[in-house]
Design a protein that fits this description.
Helix content: under 10%
Largest sheet: 5 strands, parallel
Strand order of the largest sheet: 1-2-3-4-5
Strand content: 5-15%
Number of helices: 1
Radius of gyration: 13 Å
Shape: globular
Structural class: mainly beta
Number of strands: 5
Amino acid sequence: QERFQQLIEANDGMLDISGCSLEQIPDELQYIQGLRAINLADNCLLSLDGIEVQLSLQHITAWNNQLREIPHGISKCRNLESLFIDCNFIEYLPRSIGDLSKLHLLS
């Protein structure tokens, strides 16, 4: 947890944990403050469950994973501006994604 917090502070609110063979969102992220952007690309994520606790998130990059759906709770990330989920197995988006009024990039 402390390690992630230090990385985020040193990188102006950005955390890059791409290519780390992650199968799930690390539990430690729920305790992190000030996270504005996260790069989860090139992992083995099956779900983005747990990301919705990061209310300050503006940018999520999660392409090239094993995602099958986007959690309905993503609508809690009211500041989300971009969501990159290419190269996954997502068949539909939850209706709640329409509640993200700042979202202008979705791919």
